[in-house]
Design brief:
The protein is an alpha/beta fold and 180 residues long. The protein is built from six helices and six strands, in the order βαβαββαααββα. It is globular and about 55 Å long.
């Protein structure tokens, strides 16, 4: 980090590991960013798809130069509507992003926006459903991992992905090709 650093980029929860940064961990990043007066851009597309109940803070909860991005695709299971958002308290960043959006996107589909609005209206129901699915899937994966002598992992805390490790003497590209 230096005074030339303009942006710190991270995703929380992490993809593919499923790691979820604690509020203290996020605050450490915020403190580092503040020390060099830089922005923090955090992809939060899996935020709220956690293995435990509770609130996962957004980068914009902690930092006025925080920028959060997300979408309907993961938490709401609505990848097909192709809608997302950016949130920040920094008005200059928001203005620049809105200008760029206007340049890139004339409009979104009205049906997509209607579905998105409906999803937000029933977000608690959708979140409860999707957390249940993710948590049940993780139980199935956990049972399988414990039965495999060559597979290890760090159990994910959030998201829909997990990073599995194997101890075969085989490069991962060849392993994946064989699995495929």
């Amino acid at each position: 980090m230096s005074d030339k650093t303009k942006l710190i980029v991270l995703n929380n929860p992490d993809n593919p590991t499923g790691a979820l940064m604690s509020q203290a961990g996020l605050q450490t990043i915020v403190d580092i960013a503040k020390s060099v007066d830089t922005y923090v851009l955090c992809d939060e597309v899996y935020r709220h798809l956690t293995q435990e109940d509770g609130y996962s803070p957004s980068i914009i909860d902690l930092y006025d130069k925080g920028i959060s991005t997300s979408s309907f695709s993961k938490v709401f299971s609505l990848a097909g509507i192709r809608l997302g958002w950016l949130a920040t308290h920094d008005q200059a960043v928001m203005k620049a992003c809105l200008s760029y959006r206007d340049y890139e996107t004339i409009s979104c589909g009205q049906l997509d926006e209607m579905v998105g609005t409906l999803a937000l209206k029933y977000q608690a129901v959708l979140l409860e459903r999707n957390r249940g699915i993710v948590r049940e899937n993780l139980k199935v994966l956990e049972e399988w991992v414990h039965q495999q002598p060559h597979i290890t992992w760090l159990k994910p805390k959030a998201g829909t992905t997990a990073l599995l490790y194997y101890d075969f003497d085989l490069p991962s590209t060849i392993f994946c090709d064989r699995l495929f």
